[in-house]
Amino acid sequence: MAMPKVPKQVSEPSSFIGDHGEFGPPLFAKLVPFAVHIAASIYDERRDRLVNTNIIDELEILTTKIHDTLRSLNLPGSLQALEKPLGLPPTLTSHAEEIRQADALTRLQRSFSDTAKLKKTDEDIFTEGRNLLQTEASENERLLMKYGSDRWTRPISTQAAAKLYNQVGEIDGYLKSAANSDELVIKKFRECEDMLRVLSSSDRDIGNFVPSSRRVAIPPHLEGEVSRLRNSLNEVSRLETRRRRKIEALREKAKKDDIHSSILAEAARLEREYPNQILVPAHFEEFFEARLRKYDEDITALKTESEEQDRLTSQLESANESFVSARKGDTSSREREKALQRLENAYFQYKEIVSNLEVGRKFYNDLAKIVGRFRDGCKAFVYERREDAVRLES
Q1: Are residues 276 and 349 in the same domain?
Q2: Does 346 share its domain with 206?
Q3: What's the mean pLDDT in 241-263?
Q4: Is residue 208 predicted with pLDDT exceeding 60?
Q5: Which end of the chain is more exposed for a tag (fewer CB within 10 A), N or C?
Q6: Is residue 278 domain-resident?
């Protein structure tokens, strides 16, 4: 009366599963091993560190050296004061417009506030973890005094959690170093705040701040030196502009460097070659090295960039020396020169401060992950030690 029948879905599952099957693809067909996710995160971290620390930061340092050199030579203020004794130089006007459009002072104040909040959050999390360790150490010391070392034989807190206690010193060092850097950035801002207020004002107000010089015509014996210095200064400016474009292109290159499909292919290859081995992130080391070689040309270009800058800087210093020598004794535009240079210095300091604050924001965001793991580790350690203390007391 009854006859056993196996459903085709059981006896022939392959005909029902797949892109054209009734049930579609297998439920976990696209499930990626956890090790692959970890490996992808490791690659992203290494790529960002390579691009930001080893390349972009080095380029930014080179640019800072340019600005330091210009400040030491009193450029472009001395040249602008002579070339345009009346009104505002076009370069200064464009810089003032950029400052106004960016609402520079408000932007900096907001960035300082945001950075301070990030720092406070990191410090609070770190303090919470450190207090947990101190509380556990006090509890263990009390129990040791109560039972004596003969019966209370478990390791002391600093030995039982040596890694966590080492992290206390490391993180504390990070925070102190960051605090010193923050103070330097704030000091830099205080130095240029007044000039930034002038640059944020109208062109008329800036014109009132910059005095006009008495002489309009450039003497013939000085004209050649002015032209030579202006050409050298323009070459340095073009180098800086190219560098900014290079940095943006590099950031875009890193942003588009998505390894999702490549790392899945590599994981599949590893699984075929080593079918009985469980995948771990360490298996992707060779893949990482090969993938990161695409940035070798950018690292190599740093040396060329530095050599080109040294050449142009030497050329600029030589031209400026001849320029200063040719106008020796001329004080007609000295006050205008000082005013123009102060405003130009403030503009470049503003750009540096923006860059410094961005680095600080990234640092505190990265530190948040470290202190978060530290606090979680402290919580787990304290919980285990209290459980262990209960068992040992019993």
Answers
A1: no
A2: yes
A3: 91
A4: yes
A5: N
A6: yes
19 in a domain, yes or no?
A: no
The answer to whether 315 and 72 have CB atoms below 8 angstroms apart is: no
Task: Establish if 270 belongs to a structural domain.
Answer: yes
Residue where a domain stops, chosen among 281, 304, 331? 331
Contact predicate 324/79, CB 8 Å: no
Instruction: Report how far residue 101's alpha carbon sits from residue 199's, in angstroms, rounded to the nearest whole number.
Output: 11
| DSSP tag of 17 | S
In the chain, the number of structural domains is: 2
Tens-place pLDDT, residues 53-64: 899 999 999 999
- How confident is residue 250, by pLDDT bands cut at 50, 70 and 90? very high
Cβ burial of 271 (10 Å; 0-12, 13-18, 19+) is: middle
Whether residues 127 and 202 share a domain: the answer is yes
Q: Which two tokens stand for residue 355?
A: 């860059």
Q: Is the pLDDT of residue 21 over 70?
A: no
Concatenating the DSSP letter of every residue in 28-75 gives TTTPPPHHHHHHHHHHHHHHHHIIIIIIIHHHHHHHHHHHHHHHHTTT
Please give the average per-residue pLDDT across 19-44, as a whole number: 68
Nearest Cα to Cα of residue 374 among 45, 41, 130, 116:
130
Q: Which of 294, 309, 331 is the last residue of a domain?
A: 331
- pLDDT tens for each residue of 281-313: 888 899 999 999 999 999 999 999 999 999 999
Pair 190, 280 in one domain: no
Q: Is pLDDT at 121 greater than 60 in this prediction?
A: yes
**Would you say 209 and 339 are in contact if contact means Cβ atoms under 8 Å apart?**
yes
Residue-range definition of the domain harbouring residue 394: 112-215+337-394
What is the pLDDT confidence band of residue 28, given thresholds at 50, 70 and 90? very low
